[in-house]
Amino acid sequence: MAAKAIKILVACGTAIATATVVATKLKEVFTKLGIPLTVVQCKASEVSGKVMVFQPHVIVATTPVSEGAARGVPVVNGVPFLTGIGEQETIDKILEIVGIKK
Question: Which of 7, 11, 22 is nearest to 84 (CA)?
Fold first, then answer.
């Protein structure tokens, strides 16, 4: 049985540096787990519109994202992907949100 494709929206201040680092790490993790993943990067100010179009399962943000902008999509702090501190716990939380058991 093929795993469902997971959609993650990665948001940071400019959608360039930190979003790219986080997106790359997420792709590595999901590839190792054999789970299909689609990642879209955006600025925090673009989250609301991207959520409506992309319909992600989860938002990973390195900067604050309001509940209103997230439109009901769970938001996970992406800073551990930059610092390495708490990275595995963050990965576990994302997997739990998208309904994947390790």
Answer: 22
- DSSP at 71: T
Q: Which of 9, 12, 19, 73 is catalytic?
A: 12
Predicted local distance difference test score (pLDDT) of residue 48: 97
Question: What confidence category does residue 14 fall into, taking pLDDT thresholds of 50, 70 and 90?
Answer: confident
3-class secondary-structure state, position 94: helix
pTM of the predicted structure, to 2 decimals: 0.94
Query: In the predicted model, is pLDDT for residue 102 greater than 80?
Result: no
Contact between residue 37 and residue 5 where contact means Cβ atoms under 8 Å apart: yes
50: three-class secondary structure by DSSP = helix
Residue 13 tokens, joined: 């201040």
Question: Catalytic: 42?
Answer: no
Cα three-residue angle 59-81-68, rounded to 5 degrees:
25
